Amino acid sequence: MSKRALCLALLALLAGGAEGLAQRPKEKDPRPTVRPRVTVPMTAAATVPESEPNDDYTTADAVSLGDQATGTIDPAGDWDWFVFSATAGQMIEIDVDAEEVGSDLDSYMYLYDTDGTTELAYNDDWGGWYDSHIEYTFTAAGNYYIALREYSDPDAGGPTYTYAINFTEVLPGVGDPVTEFASGFVCVFGLVAADDGTIYAADPCASEVREVATDGTVSTFVFGDWWPIDLTLDAFGNLIVASDDGWIYKVSPEADVTAFAERYAPAITTASDGSIWAFGYPGGVAAQAAAAAQGDFYFYQYDPLGNLVDSLAVSGSSPDWLSIGFSPAGELHYSVGDTIYKLVDGIPQSVAVDENGGMGPFAFDTEGNLYVVNWDYYDVALYGPDGTLLEDPFARGVYSPMDIVFGRDADGTPNGRVFIADNGQGGELVSPMEGLQRVAQVGSAILELNADGVYEDGAVVGMSMDMLTDDGLAAELFGVGELTDGEKDFLDFMGNQNGEYDVGDFRAFLVYTGTLPGVAQGVSWR
Amino acid sequence: MRKQRWITATAVALALAVGVACGDDESVGPEVTPGTMIVSLTTPNADDGAIMFTVSGGEIDAPALLDIEHVLYLMEGANTITAIIAGDIVAGGLLEFDVPDVEVAYTATITQVADRTNDLRDPLTGYSLTVDPEVE
Q1: Which of A9, A97, B10, B78 lies 20 to 30 A from B43 at CA?
Q2: Which domains does chain B have, with CATH numbers?
Q3: Pairing outcome for strands B107-115 and B71-77
């Protein structure tokens, strides 16, 4: 089950009850090519057939790094165990080949600590197949255990449920090691960094938006009868929250929640002119599934007050999940399937491609480099502004990445810290009771990449009123200002909307900031 | 080299002496009267909310609002200022400034006007500014 499918399943569950997960989809697009992986050349590789009984850690078959273990989950209910040795600091990849090579096995794999009972990681699917894959960095030397079973254990198995498991040491990316920054989420989806350094995190499983302080302390910012899935900030410091109940909400800095717009929008972001952009579907929640099936999706632009300004149909594909964001140049980018696109005059242009798919959320640095999480391969890749693959992987040590953001200093300046919303080792969201609890057990968390590997500081995202001063706005009218085009567009938008920044827009700003008495007439600022 | 320096010093001293002598001679040059100039608005509307204009002509010192309820933003240049005044703008005096000579002619040109709903006035038919010495 892919990450996107998992997310959809969770959201379907949240929106519609347990029926949404009653049937596990079996169809998936074949992924005929294998994404290149950087591995350490190994010598003395051997094929190690399993030796039954190897049904628990005490009877595990011994393998060495570089070996390929082979076996069969037979009969139904069979578990096969292997033991291997790792040294401190080693990053090891354990990769199953089964469905990909024609086996009936839908694998499910666990990594256990040296005691054979403490679970370190697990995985169901990886790389677009039903084959499991674990990458793990060991902190201590010792003998570690792998257990493999059929996903439908104990109901499936037999002679055709064959597998091979490859044990390989891999090289870390420049963004490794990845460390845990904050934990305590039930699950964690969208992230946004505020201009005081606080990170807000959507936790739909807890119906909360969490507030993460600069030291990683997590607290509840706002709880509601909703399922927040993605977040952005408007120019006034309000959180704009896309919820899976088919609404977009506005949450003030004082945590007051009001409706922003009725829209089913899995992804949301802020443009440099202060407008809010959402990827979504026409109609409400009920119409979402049909619209998605037809590839009937849109980008919706809202003014900061929640009024729909424009919508743009981008059809021709059928995204089940999609991420959006603006580049430093102000171009709307979105990821779907194997490609990140940008919209140029409303026309999608390919920016970066991973032929194996899984392109997920992304974040820009100041140079326009793209840090992209992969939903199928559970890692992070780095692309240049022209789509050149710069680091692959940039970081391996993520498990089920859902969003990626640059951090910000206390003065609002984006810095070189990169955070990832991660839903634990294996990222299973199998069912509301088992699945979500399981995710919590294995640690939905915000992870932090190794800042030494980050090329540049983060790009300024959206806009903030804090960036604007009356003197700066006046200077712009005097012809000596330094406002960006986006800021002027925003000021005009919040002013008289005549297409250019002028003294009327300046007056509107003065009223908003209280410099002039009274309240703005016409277009209101809040 | 030493001789050249002496010549230079002598020339400077002479120039200063001449300059001081001329400055002390009140009978030389036109008579000037320092004072205050007032920029006044003529408007066909009663709901103006902001105005931007430029004043030029001569030296402009200590520009200040005539209505303390207004807010003023200035960019000062050589013998010119560009001003934005916002608030409940009405016809009459908007701005005052000191000048070394009230006989020097000053002109003011309106660039933009907005109403109190922030809409830009266009065209500016009926609008004008005058710059006149303050009447005691």
Answers
A1: B78
A2: 35-133 (2.60.40.680)
A3: unpaired
What φ, ψ does residue A231 adopt, rounded to 5°? -135, 150
Contacts of A506 in chain B (CB under 8 A): 50, 84, 86, 114
Match 């320092």 to its residue by tokens: B34
d(CA A525, CA A336): 34
Average pLDDT over residues A6-26: 39
Contacts of A522 in chain B (CB under 8 A): 117-119
Name every chain B residue with its beta carbon within 8 A of the beta carbon of A503.
Answer: 50-52, 84, 86, 111-114, 120
Best interface-test mutation with A: which of B54, B70, B82, B118 has the largest number of A CBs within 10 A? B118
Give A179-453's CATH code, choosing from 2.40.50.1070, 3.60.110.10, 3.40.50.2300, 2.120.10.30.
2.120.10.30
Quick one: pLDDT at residue A319? 59
A388: burial class by Cβ within 10 Å (0-12, 13-18, 19+)?
Answer: exposed
B120 vs A470, A471, A504: nearest CB: A504
Domain ranges of chain A: 39-169, 179-453, 468-512
Q: What is the mean pLDDT of chain A?
A: 83
> Closest Cα of chain B to A474: distance in Å?
7
Contact A358, A350 (CB under 8 A): no
* Distance separating alpha carbons of residues A395 and A373, to the nearest angstrom: 9
- pLDDT tens-digit profile of A399-449? 778 899 999 999 889 999 999 998 865 444 433 223 333 333 356 899 999
What is the residue type of B71?
A: V
Average pLDDT over residues A339-355: 90
For A315, residues 6+ apart whose C-beta sits below 8 A from its C-beta are A295, A296, A297
Size of interface A-B (CB pairs under 8 A): 70
In chain A, pLDDT over 70 holds for what percent of residues? Answer: 82
Helical pair A503-512 and A485-494, crossing angle rounded to 10 deg: 70
- Pairwise CB contact (< 8 Å): A504 & B75: no
Burial-class residue A237 by CB neighbours within 10 Å (0-12, 13-18, 19+): middle
pLDDT of residue A38: 47
Q: What is the pLDDT of residue A338?
A: 87
Q: Residue A22 pLDDT > 60, yes or no?
A: no
pLDDT, one tens digit per residue, over A61-78 is 999 999 999 999 999 999
Asked if CATH classification 2.60.120.380 holds for the domain at A39-169, the reply, yes or no, is yes
Tell if the CB–CB gap between B118 and A523 is shorter than 8 Å. yes
Q: What percent of chain B has pLDDT over 90?
A: 74
Residues of B in contact with A517 (CB under 8 A): 69
pLDDT tens by residue, A119-164: 888 888 877 788 988 888 888 999 999 999 999 999 999 999 999 9
